[in-house]
Amino acid sequence: MSSLIIFSLLLVVVVVHLFSYATPTKFSAATQIIPEWRRTTTRRELGSESCRTGNPIDDCWRCDPNWEANRKMLADCAAGFGRNAVGGRDGEFYVVKHSDDDPKNPVPGTLRHAVIQEVPLWIIFDRDMVINLKEELVMNSYKTIDGRGFNVQIADGPCICIHNTSNIIVHNVYIHDCVPGGNAVVRDSPQHSGLRGKSDGDGISVFASRDIWIDHCTLASCYDGLIDVVFGSTAITISNNYMFHHNEVMLLGHSDDFLPDKSMQITIAFNFFGEGLVQRMPRCRHGYFHIVNNIYTGWEMYAIGGSANPTINSQGNVFIAANNRSTKEASFLFLFSFFFHLQSTQLLKSAFFHHQVTKHEVLEGEKEHWKQWNWRSEGDMLINGAFFTSSGQKAPQIYMKASSMVARPAAVLIHTPPSSGALLCQKGKSC
Q: Residue of 128, 204, 218, 367 with fewest CB within 10 Å of its CB?
């Protein structure tokens, strides 16, 4: 018994020590924010036999040293509910050469001019650039924003709006410090411009859209959400992103009263939820949510929450509660109660709210309704006193609509550090 306790405590120490190297440093505007452990474990330093990690998205394209010539292969690598998002695969390349922005009359060679075109386009960049948008970037369907090869940032202004469109891929862009815009004329197609109302200040806002894939982006410090998906949007994958320094991270579902969100299906996979995050990783309403193989390195309120009876299928994730005094106390109490089979385990853990992974949000007078919501944790690693409150039915068939891909064992995420967020891809080398 004593050896088992010692092993458990050592495991906690090792894992927390491993992720202590995941703290990013904020550099100048021209420098990407990348955790130090990612700087020292890039694939360029690995042999070709080692480049495959079991992440089906990355293994599909990242071993190719000719990725720059084969950019559009990325469109065939999506997994999860957003796997059919082809973006601009069937269109021409569009090269962004200027960081300027004119919302009403976009100039050719700018990002805004590219995304409003009515034909499919694969949008790339000819250099490092920081794009300060003056209003929301309203996108048309069948577009890919592909920042590979350069440090491309959208920052310090309104950011990306995916509104009533389909087949969008946003890849390898650093999005940060987004603010509200609106009450201004914005062009949304070559033929049309109109007055837009005030925006929320999200990093990426997805509204009434489908077949969307957001992959390998870095997101931080926006006015509202980092990624919000609302108003009947579905068939979406949010994968391999690195998020940090933010309060309300992801909102999935418009409101408790908006019933069309019952058809929402979203995959949250291989993301790294870093330091300085508070809540909504994600917060879900009504629909079906597959949260698979993500790493959470701390949260101030909760990691996964929801209301209005969403189905949440959490598989193969690593949840590491914050390493503060209350965390250590809760971890000790949890181990003590577990090994000695105390009946008060849940009460002991509940006393330290910083450790709860989940939050069932209910209206006053409906406090017991959450027990009927189908939330499960399967194969998750709960470290440093983290705990997941399951609810509803346990039968696997209940989660079929919230299952979109095969989960890897959570332990693999510990042994193979993820390379989430925007990548430092170099031409002629595997990314």
A: 367
pLDDT in tens, 354-408: 589 999 998 777 778 899 999 999 999 999 999 999 999 999 999 999 999 999 9
**Which tokens go with 109?**
């060679």
Cα–Cα dist 16/22, whole Å: 10
Q: Is residue 422 part of a domain?
A: no
Per-residue tokens: 205: 């806002």
CA atoms within 13 A on the CB side of 372: 8
Per-residue b or e along 328-357, where b marks 16 or more CB atoms closer than 10 Å to that residue's CB: bebbebbbebeeeeeeebeebbeebebbbb
Q: Give the chain's domain count.
A: 1
Phi, psi of 380 (to 5 degrees): -75, 150
The residues that bridge with 277 in the sheet, in sequence order, are: 246
CB 304 within 8 A of CB 327: no
Is 83 assigned a catalytic role? no
Query: Is residue 346 included in any domain, yes or no?
Result: yes
Annotated catalytic residue, options 83, 89, 280, 285:
280
The CATH number linked to 364 is 2.160.20.10
